[in-house]
Input
Amino acid sequence: MYGWIWRHLPGNAWVRALISLVLVLAIVFVLFQYVFPWAEPLLPFNDVTVDQGMAGPR
Amino acid sequence: MARTDHDERQDRDTGPPATPSRRPGRGRVAAAIAVFGELLITAGIILALFVVYSLWWTNVLADREAKKQGDRVRKHWAQQGPGKLDTKDGIGFLHVPSMHNGEVLVKKGTSTETLNDGVAGYYTKPVKSAMPWDRKGNFSLAAHRDGHGAKFHDIDKVHEGDPVVFETRDTWYVYKVYATLPETSKYNVDVLDAVPKESGRKRPGRYITLSTCTPVYTSRHRYIVWGELERTEKVDADRTPPEELR
Output
């Protein structure tokens, strides 16, 4: 998979490394900005209040 | 630099013929396993990034937001003379010296959205919180244990006898912790009652309840700290804090 991506990037090794770095940073940005904020409420790690169960507010 | 370029060119010259000769040697199965392995590594990296996000990045964002909102409240207080309390921006600041986390802005409501800004919220439901200036009742608060400011992270460092101070525009409310409940069900809404019986108190009084999740990094149970109002102090012109905070 990663080998395939590497082979399909243009330029020499330095250019490819640079493009790879930019791609990695872009993916991390998308994860932190959109994916994780969306996923977090769906995971049971951060409910802090007491309430009356599933029907109650969080 | 020139040397590297030269090496690079050599690599590129020898590279392409090497690749096709390597590829047919690998079976389809081997290729599939390699892809599967790479996917597993990717999943591991994403999970690790999620931990970084939860325990670090959300704190950065929440602290920034809380600072901004806190500054707004302070500015508001400084500008305005006596008048109505503005509950939208926040009603005041909570100081718990034994948690070593400075001041925590307190706002209305305990919705995820509110608490994610790195503030503590007072309950509006399931049991409506009393306000500190009410003659009787329980001022009940919730905040995050981890991530999003983690304002109640060190709640387990709060022991009986420790002061909890709530600061409004013109009054310091000094509470003293008299009971803690290190673990209770998340459905135990009785802890928020006007007279929290589980804390051992039977008579109406002016109580404060801090609630957050426990054990750390999970939401399985709730951790409760109860305090009772000891005295109030008028805020002077310099906003000199009460001796508990000095």
Notes: Residues 13-39 of chain A form the longest helix (27 residues). Residues 53-58 of chain A have pLDDT under 50 and may be disordered.
